[in-house]
Amino acid sequence: MATQHSRSAARLMMAPAVILLLGWMLVPLTMTLWFSFRNYFPLRPDREPGWAGFDNYVRFFSSSAFWPSVQTTLVIVGGVLLITIVLGILLAILLDQPMWGQGAVRILVIAPFFVMPTVSALVWKNMFMDPVNGLFAHLWRFFGAEPVVWLSDASLGSIIMIVSWQWLPFATLILLTAIQSLDGEQLEAAEMDGAPVHKRFVYIVLPHLARAITIVVLIQTIFLLSIFAEIFVTTGGAFGTRTLTYLIFQRVLESQNVGLGSAGGVYAIILANIVAIFLMRIVGKNLDA
To answer: What DSSP state is assigned to residue 248?
Structure first.
Protein backbone atom coordinates (compact mmCIF):
# COMPACT_ATOMS: atom_id res chain seq x y z
CA MET A 1 0.00 0.00 0.00
CA ALA A 2 1.35 3.40 -0.94
CA THR A 3 2.28 5.65 1.97
CA GLN A 4 1.61 9.37 2.22
CA HIS A 5 5.31 10.02 1.57
CA SER A 6 5.35 7.92 -1.63
CA ARG A 7 2.18 9.59 -2.91
CA SER A 8 3.68 13.03 -2.28
CA ALA A 9 6.87 12.01 -4.08
CA ALA A 10 4.82 10.74 -7.04
CA ARG A 11 2.90 14.04 -7.25
CA LEU A 12 6.17 15.97 -7.09
CA MET A 13 7.69 13.98 -9.95
CA MET A 14 4.56 14.34 -12.06
CA ALA A 15 4.23 18.08 -11.44
CA PRO A 16 6.63 19.25 -14.22
CA ALA A 17 4.81 17.18 -16.86
CA VAL A 18 1.41 18.36 -15.66
CA ILE A 19 2.53 22.02 -15.65
CA LEU A 20 3.99 21.63 -19.16
CA LEU A 21 0.78 20.06 -20.50
CA LEU A 22 -1.39 22.72 -18.87
CA GLY A 23 0.77 25.45 -20.36
CA TRP A 24 0.71 23.73 -23.74
CA MET A 25 -3.11 23.84 -23.68
CA LEU A 26 -3.90 27.00 -21.74
CA VAL A 27 -1.53 29.43 -23.49
CA PRO A 28 -2.96 28.89 -27.03
CA LEU A 29 -6.51 28.86 -25.63
CA THR A 30 -5.95 32.12 -23.76
CA MET A 31 -4.43 33.76 -26.86
CA THR A 32 -7.36 32.57 -28.99
CA LEU A 33 -9.85 34.07 -26.55
CA TRP A 34 -7.89 37.33 -26.42
CA PHE A 35 -7.64 37.72 -30.19
CA SER A 36 -11.31 36.78 -30.68
CA PHE A 37 -12.28 40.08 -29.02
CA ARG A 38 -9.91 42.14 -31.14
CA ASN A 39 -9.42 43.17 -34.75
CA TYR A 40 -5.90 42.08 -35.63
CA PHE A 41 -4.50 42.38 -39.17
CA PRO A 42 -0.84 41.15 -39.16
CA LEU A 43 -0.58 41.19 -42.99
CA ARG A 44 -2.33 44.53 -43.52
CA PRO A 45 -0.25 47.39 -42.07
CA ASP A 46 -2.87 49.88 -43.27
CA ARG A 47 -5.38 48.51 -40.75
CA GLU A 48 -4.85 49.33 -37.11
CA PRO A 49 -5.61 46.63 -34.53
CA GLY A 50 -8.22 47.46 -31.96
CA TRP A 51 -10.89 46.20 -29.61
CA ALA A 52 -13.85 44.55 -31.36
CA GLY A 53 -15.89 43.18 -28.48
CA PHE A 54 -18.33 40.55 -29.71
CA ASP A 55 -18.36 41.83 -33.31
CA ASN A 56 -16.18 38.95 -34.53
CA TYR A 57 -18.52 36.42 -32.91
CA VAL A 58 -21.57 38.05 -34.44
CA ARG A 59 -19.99 38.23 -37.91
CA PHE A 60 -18.91 34.61 -37.85
CA PHE A 61 -22.18 33.27 -36.42
CA SER A 62 -24.37 35.34 -38.77
CA SER A 63 -22.50 34.08 -41.84
CA SER A 64 -24.72 32.06 -44.16
CA ALA A 65 -22.03 29.37 -44.29
CA PHE A 66 -21.85 28.79 -40.52
CA TRP A 67 -24.64 26.27 -39.97
CA PRO A 68 -24.01 24.36 -43.25
CA SER A 69 -20.38 23.96 -42.19
CA VAL A 70 -21.43 22.62 -38.78
CA GLN A 71 -23.81 20.18 -40.47
CA THR A 72 -21.12 19.04 -42.90
CA THR A 73 -18.69 18.51 -40.04
CA LEU A 74 -21.15 16.32 -38.12
CA VAL A 75 -22.09 14.33 -41.25
CA ILE A 76 -18.43 13.57 -41.98
CA VAL A 77 -17.76 12.58 -38.38
CA GLY A 78 -20.84 10.35 -38.22
CA GLY A 79 -20.18 8.74 -41.60
CA VAL A 80 -16.55 7.96 -40.84
CA LEU A 81 -17.39 6.55 -37.40
CA LEU A 82 -20.08 4.28 -38.85
CA ILE A 83 -17.84 2.93 -41.63
CA THR A 84 -14.73 2.44 -39.49
CA ILE A 85 -16.55 0.70 -36.65
CA VAL A 86 -18.56 -1.69 -38.86
CA LEU A 87 -15.67 -2.55 -41.17
CA GLY A 88 -13.23 -2.49 -38.25
CA ILE A 89 -15.19 -5.20 -36.45
CA LEU A 90 -15.37 -7.34 -39.60
CA LEU A 91 -11.65 -6.93 -40.33
CA ALA A 92 -10.71 -7.61 -36.71
CA ILE A 93 -12.69 -10.86 -36.72
CA LEU A 94 -11.11 -11.84 -40.04
CA LEU A 95 -7.56 -11.05 -38.90
CA ASP A 96 -8.10 -13.04 -35.72
CA GLN A 97 -8.56 -16.21 -37.78
CA PRO A 98 -5.51 -18.39 -38.43
CA MET A 99 -4.19 -17.82 -41.96
CA TRP A 100 -0.99 -18.03 -43.95
CA GLY A 101 1.11 -14.86 -43.69
CA GLN A 102 -1.05 -13.49 -40.89
CA GLY A 103 1.63 -11.08 -39.65
CA ALA A 104 2.21 -9.57 -43.11
CA VAL A 105 -1.53 -9.20 -43.69
CA ARG A 106 -1.96 -7.35 -40.40
CA ILE A 107 0.88 -4.96 -41.27
CA LEU A 108 -0.67 -4.24 -44.68
CA VAL A 109 -4.07 -3.56 -43.11
CA ILE A 110 -2.61 -1.18 -40.52
CA ALA A 111 -0.22 0.59 -42.96
CA PRO A 112 -2.68 3.27 -44.25
CA PHE A 113 -2.85 4.80 -40.77
CA PHE A 114 0.80 5.89 -41.09
CA VAL A 115 0.27 7.69 -44.41
CA MET A 116 0.14 11.48 -44.12
CA PRO A 117 -3.39 12.87 -44.70
CA THR A 118 -2.17 15.11 -47.51
CA VAL A 119 -0.47 12.24 -49.31
CA SER A 120 -3.48 10.00 -48.80
CA ALA A 121 -5.84 12.63 -50.24
CA LEU A 122 -3.57 13.16 -53.26
CA VAL A 123 -3.42 9.41 -53.95
CA TRP A 124 -7.20 9.08 -53.80
CA LYS A 125 -7.74 12.20 -55.90
CA ASN A 126 -5.32 11.35 -58.71
CA MET A 127 -5.04 7.57 -58.68
CA PHE A 128 -8.57 6.48 -57.80
CA MET A 129 -11.08 9.30 -58.30
CA ASP A 130 -9.76 11.07 -61.38
CA PRO A 131 -12.66 10.98 -63.91
CA VAL A 132 -10.30 10.40 -66.87
CA ASN A 133 -7.34 8.30 -65.75
CA GLY A 134 -8.44 7.13 -62.29
CA LEU A 135 -8.83 3.48 -61.38
CA PHE A 136 -12.56 3.92 -60.69
CA ALA A 137 -13.02 5.55 -64.13
CA HIS A 138 -11.40 2.59 -65.88
CA LEU A 139 -13.52 0.20 -63.82
CA TRP A 140 -16.71 2.06 -64.75
CA ARG A 141 -15.78 1.99 -68.45
CA PHE A 142 -15.01 -1.73 -68.25
CA PHE A 143 -18.62 -2.35 -67.22
CA GLY A 144 -19.91 0.05 -69.87
CA ALA A 145 -20.89 2.85 -67.50
CA GLU A 146 -20.05 6.54 -67.59
CA PRO A 147 -17.27 7.46 -65.11
CA VAL A 148 -18.34 9.41 -62.03
CA VAL A 149 -16.76 12.77 -61.24
CA TRP A 150 -16.40 11.82 -57.62
CA LEU A 151 -15.16 15.06 -56.10
CA SER A 152 -18.04 17.08 -57.54
CA ASP A 153 -20.93 14.64 -58.07
CA ALA A 154 -20.37 12.71 -54.82
CA SER A 155 -18.08 15.10 -52.98
CA LEU A 156 -19.18 14.50 -49.39
CA GLY A 157 -19.21 10.74 -49.85
CA SER A 158 -15.74 10.94 -51.39
CA ILE A 159 -14.35 12.81 -48.38
CA ILE A 160 -15.94 10.28 -46.03
CA MET A 161 -14.41 7.45 -48.07
CA ILE A 162 -10.94 8.97 -48.00
CA VAL A 163 -10.98 9.71 -44.28
CA SER A 164 -12.49 6.30 -43.46
CA TRP A 165 -9.62 4.62 -45.33
CA GLN A 166 -7.18 6.53 -43.13
CA TRP A 167 -8.87 5.72 -39.82
CA LEU A 168 -9.99 2.15 -40.51
CA PRO A 169 -6.59 0.68 -39.50
CA PHE A 170 -6.77 2.43 -36.13
CA ALA A 171 -10.23 1.05 -35.40
CA THR A 172 -9.20 -2.40 -36.62
CA LEU A 173 -6.12 -2.46 -34.39
CA ILE A 174 -8.06 -1.49 -31.24
CA LEU A 175 -10.89 -3.91 -31.97
CA LEU A 176 -8.49 -6.75 -32.88
CA THR A 177 -6.75 -6.31 -29.54
CA ALA A 178 -10.11 -6.50 -27.78
CA ILE A 179 -11.15 -9.64 -29.69
CA GLN A 180 -7.88 -11.37 -28.84
CA SER A 181 -8.58 -10.76 -25.15
CA LEU A 182 -11.92 -12.58 -25.41
CA ASP A 183 -12.08 -15.85 -23.49
CA GLY A 184 -12.32 -18.57 -26.12
CA GLU A 185 -14.01 -20.93 -23.66
CA GLN A 186 -17.18 -18.82 -23.76
CA LEU A 187 -17.42 -19.19 -27.53
CA GLU A 188 -16.67 -22.90 -27.34
CA ALA A 189 -19.33 -23.41 -24.69
CA ALA A 190 -21.89 -21.47 -26.73
CA GLU A 191 -20.99 -23.49 -29.83
CA MET A 192 -21.38 -26.77 -27.93
CA ASP A 193 -24.79 -25.59 -26.75
CA GLY A 194 -25.82 -25.15 -30.36
CA ALA A 195 -25.80 -21.35 -30.54
CA PRO A 196 -25.52 -20.18 -34.18
CA VAL A 197 -22.72 -17.89 -35.33
CA HIS A 198 -24.79 -14.69 -35.41
CA LYS A 199 -26.08 -15.21 -31.86
CA ARG A 200 -22.55 -15.87 -30.58
CA PHE A 201 -21.52 -12.60 -32.18
CA VAL A 202 -24.47 -10.58 -30.81
CA TYR A 203 -24.50 -11.94 -27.26
CA ILE A 204 -20.79 -12.64 -26.63
CA VAL A 205 -18.44 -10.87 -29.05
CA LEU A 206 -20.26 -7.56 -29.43
CA PRO A 207 -20.75 -6.89 -25.67
CA HIS A 208 -17.07 -7.71 -25.17
CA LEU A 209 -16.16 -5.09 -27.79
CA ALA A 210 -18.30 -2.34 -26.20
CA ARG A 211 -15.41 -0.71 -24.33
CA ALA A 212 -13.11 -0.87 -27.36
CA ILE A 213 -15.80 0.65 -29.59
CA THR A 214 -16.24 3.45 -27.04
CA ILE A 215 -12.52 4.22 -27.11
CA VAL A 216 -12.49 4.24 -30.94
CA VAL A 217 -15.49 6.59 -31.07
CA LEU A 218 -14.08 9.06 -28.55
CA ILE A 219 -10.53 9.21 -29.98
CA GLN A 220 -11.59 9.40 -33.62
CA THR A 221 -14.20 12.08 -32.92
CA ILE A 222 -11.57 14.34 -31.33
CA PHE A 223 -9.47 14.26 -34.49
CA LEU A 224 -12.29 14.15 -37.05
CA LEU A 225 -13.82 17.40 -35.79
CA SER A 226 -10.70 19.21 -37.00
CA ILE A 227 -10.44 17.57 -40.43
CA PHE A 228 -8.80 19.95 -42.89
CA ALA A 229 -6.01 18.55 -45.08
CA GLU A 230 -8.19 16.11 -47.02
CA ILE A 231 -10.66 18.83 -47.96
CA PHE A 232 -7.95 21.35 -48.82
CA VAL A 233 -6.24 18.91 -51.21
CA THR A 234 -9.34 17.47 -52.89
CA THR A 235 -12.30 19.88 -53.12
CA GLY A 236 -11.01 23.10 -51.61
CA GLY A 237 -14.21 23.36 -49.57
CA ALA A 238 -16.43 23.39 -52.67
CA PHE A 239 -19.41 21.16 -53.50
CA GLY A 240 -20.76 21.15 -49.94
CA THR A 241 -17.59 19.87 -48.23
CA ARG A 242 -16.73 22.98 -46.23
CA THR A 243 -16.39 22.01 -42.58
CA LEU A 244 -16.21 24.40 -39.66
CA THR A 245 -12.42 24.17 -39.58
CA TYR A 246 -12.20 24.96 -43.29
CA LEU A 247 -14.63 27.85 -42.90
CA ILE A 248 -12.35 29.37 -40.26
CA PHE A 249 -9.43 29.06 -42.67
CA GLN A 250 -11.38 30.76 -45.46
CA ARG A 251 -12.64 33.59 -43.28
CA VAL A 252 -9.11 34.42 -42.11
CA LEU A 253 -7.83 34.44 -45.70
CA GLU A 254 -10.69 36.62 -46.92
CA SER A 255 -10.61 39.21 -44.16
CA GLN A 256 -6.96 38.89 -43.09
CA ASN A 257 -8.41 39.32 -39.60
CA VAL A 258 -6.96 36.92 -37.06
CA GLY A 259 -9.63 38.03 -34.60
CA LEU A 260 -12.42 36.73 -36.84
CA GLY A 261 -10.67 33.39 -37.20
CA SER A 262 -10.12 33.21 -33.45
CA ALA A 263 -13.85 33.72 -32.87
CA GLY A 264 -14.47 30.82 -35.25
CA GLY A 265 -11.96 28.79 -33.27
CA VAL A 266 -13.93 29.41 -30.10
CA TYR A 267 -17.08 28.19 -31.85
CA ALA A 268 -15.15 25.06 -32.90
CA ILE A 269 -14.12 24.47 -29.29
CA ILE A 270 -17.73 24.83 -28.15
CA LEU A 271 -18.89 22.36 -30.83
CA ALA A 272 -16.18 19.87 -29.82
CA ASN A 273 -17.23 20.06 -26.17
CA ILE A 274 -20.92 19.60 -27.03
CA VAL A 275 -20.12 16.53 -29.12
CA ALA A 276 -17.80 15.17 -26.40
CA ILE A 277 -20.46 15.56 -23.70
CA PHE A 278 -23.03 13.88 -25.95
CA LEU A 279 -20.71 10.96 -26.65
CA MET A 280 -19.75 10.54 -23.02
CA ARG A 281 -23.40 10.34 -22.05
CA ILE A 282 -24.31 7.92 -24.83
CA VAL A 283 -21.32 5.58 -25.07
CA GLY A 284 -18.95 6.73 -22.33
CA LYS A 285 -20.83 4.71 -19.71
CA ASN A 286 -19.27 1.57 -21.24
CA LEU A 287 -15.95 2.61 -19.72
CA ASP A 288 -17.40 2.09 -16.27
CA ALA A 289 -19.03 -1.23 -17.11
So the answer is: H
Residue 35 near residue 52, CB atoms below 8 Å: no
User: How much is the pTM?
Assistant: 0.85
pLDDT digits (tens, 9 = 90+) for 238-268: 888 899 999 988 888 877 888 888 888 889 8
Measure CA 266 to chain center. 19
Is the domain spanning 66-241 CATH 3.40.190.290? The answer is no
Q: CA 194, CA 188: separation in Å to the nearest integer?
A: 10
What is the Cα–Cα distance from 35 to 118, expressed in whole angstroms? 29
Query: Is 89 in contact with 287 (CB distance < 8 Å)?
Result: no
Contact 171, 220 (CB under 8 A): yes
Q: How far apart are CA 269 and CA 225, in angstroms?
A: 10
- State pLDDT tens for residues 86-107: 999 998 888 887 777 667 777 7
